[in-house]
Specification:
This protein is 54% helix and 15% strand. It has 350 residues and is of the alpha+beta class. It is globular.
Length: 350
């Protein structure tokens, strides 16, 4: 069970820090250093990372619950990346360094490789690379998996951003000397799925924010002498947002619970696919319900909807997760699908 005090702490902290002005300032500068310092003092970025490795301890459910709150408040910090990098380092027996961390998500165009202990090649769209203390990547060499950790200044960084204005930098290396540790194949396989799970819970939180804003605005905005929420066309938009928010929230919660029990690949794939699909309908409906107000710089809706569109493309789009679920269904056959859906992901274990 998730620690209620932990969630209350995250709610209060993120709520006090992430007003629209602070979010816009972080987007303008590319890094909210004072905000990071405040959040880091609480230890929230390292929840779910073992204490013996330098983390704060706690369960994976605690960590995902904090990320969901972060998604609701559109926190412009590498919370998911620091936690994931910490778990990968801890899984390889490496002490987790202090400070913000990031992970190379692993894209088809990446060319990173190790040659005689030195790092060469380019990593694309690395979250928060310009502000991270260390960049962590998984590399395969002759069938063996290694985890490498390198300082951003050891490479050449090209600043880039995503749709939400958050850093997604390109980093190139020409013979940098990283920290290298061996990693089991099972741990290496977690990157895509754990990354996707972090995005699913962040998206669930952001959808909750979109839903709250939409319900509040349509209830307060008066047109022709009555709130626009009483017009049927607007009600349809509001209901669409609420339906998508509820579906993604339930899927993310189920995936988080499954991750706490063990293998959560099926639930993660389903949650990320549902979240990706919800972006199209929920974001459109929310902006239609808001009208022109929804696209103004001062109104907070765009902070959530732009993040949703950006996160949809990370750690697998609809095609990736539809294909995964389709292959799983094909492998199991009709007789295997029902127990899989009702009993969780145990039948998908390697």
């Amino acid at each position: 069970m998730t620690d209620a005090m932990l969630i209350k702490t995250a709610e209060d902290l993120f709520g006090s820090l992430c007003d629209p002005q602070a979010l816009q300032g972080a987007e303008d500068t590319g890094w909210a250093a004072p905000m990071w310092a405040t959040v880091a003092e609480t230890g929230l970025p390292w929840i779910g990372v073992p204490e013996e490795s330098g983390g704060q301890g706690g369960t994976i459910g605690d960590a995902l619950a904090v990320l969901r709150v972060a998604g609701t408040h559109c926190v412009p910090l590498p919370l998911a990346e620091t936690r994931l990098a910490g778990r990968l380092l801890a899984g390889s027996g490496v002490a987790v360094p202090p400070g913000p961390l990031t992970v190379v998500p692993g894209r088809p165009e990446d060319t990173l490789c190790l040659d005689d202990g030195r790092l060469y090649g380019t990593a694309h769209r690395v979250p928060w690379a310009r502000s991270a203390e260390w960049i962590v990547a998984l590399l395969q060499d002759e069938g063996a998996w290694n985890i490498v950790a390198v300082k951003p200044e050891a490479g050449r960084l090209t600043p880039m951003t995503d749709l939400a204005g958050e850093p997604r930098d390109m980093v190139s290396f020409e013979g940098a000397t990283p920290e290298v540790a061996a990693l089991s194949a099972a741990t290496a396989r977690t990157l895509l799925f754990e990354g996707a799970l972090t995005r699913a819970v962040l998206m669930a939180g952001a959808l909750q924010r979109v839903c709250e804003l939409t319900v509040a605005y349509t209830g307060e905005r008066v047109q022709f002498g009555r709130p626009i929420a009483r017009f049927q066309a607007v009600q349809q938009h509001v209901v669409t947002v609420m339906e998508e928010t509820a579906a993604v929230g339930l899927a993310a919660s189920a995936a988080a619970r499954a991750a706490g029990r063990g293998d959560a690949r099926f639930e993660t794939a389903a949650a990320k696919l549902l979240a990706n699909q919800a972006v199209h309908t929920a974001v459109r409906a929310a902006h239609q319900a808001h009208g022109a107000m929804g696209v103004t710089q001062e109104y907070p809706l765009h902070h959530a909807t732009r993040r949703l569109r950006a996160w949809r493309c990370e750690y697998g789009d609809e095609r990736v997760w539809s294909a995964f679920l389709g292959r799983a269904a094909q492998d199991l056959g009709a007789d295997g699908l029902y127990p899989l859906i009702t009993a969780g992901s145990s039948l998908l274990r390697a």
